[in-house]
Amino acid sequence: xxQYINDCAAYAATCAVAIDPSxxxxxxxxxxxxxxxxxxxxxxxxxxxxxxxEHLHGSSYEMDVDHFVPVNQNLALKYEWAxxxxxxxxxxxxxxxGWPAGGLLDPCNDQxxxxxxxxxxxxxxxxxxxxxxxxxxxxxxxxxxxxxxxNGKVGDEVSRQNTKHLRVTIMEQYDRVMRAIQKFLAAQxxxxxxVLANARRQLGDLLSRRAPFTQLMRSMEAVIEFVPTDLLx
Length: 233
Description:
This protein is mostly helical. The chain has helices at 2-17, 36-45, 89-94, 112-115, 137-151, 157-162, 164-188, 193-206, 214-218, 221-226, and strands at 64-67, 84-87, 116-119, 128-131.
């Protein structure tokens, strides 16, 4: 994939100085977009998390390579680096193949954290997403997609059960964060600076962008009320 990108750059440079750019041969497209350099880039750029659910994986090699804009919508983007995203297999399979009117929020280029509101219920149950601005069609489409992937289709028990593991995993992370907040508050009221440093480190790690379900965890009321902003990277 890197070689293809380099070939495209060389092609563009040659066209810029060619007398007849139409006679410059096009670079050969790679036969596959699931290559080691793409997956390694996912580990670096997405921290081995599914771009749709933020479910953390051991590495991006465990996930699918998803086309943000589906190939059936724009074949020219099949090998476009910026159109390739890491997705958990189940989330990728559940995602509708059609491209919604108004599009979706691009996590690399759009202000997802401000255009999309995440909420989570008591004990980490029932994650929900909604557009911060109801007239923002891309945000509304994205919220609808995320609600489907997290909670299944409304009224469809099979779909609900199919997404249960994700919700249980979110609840487990919610519990870790709550316990870390309790330790942090206790350490703040104590007199041992090492204990406080350890508590700050643990809480910061659980709420970092490298951690699973970052947006959902940061939406917790306890995080908003008790966690200093300097612990959020």
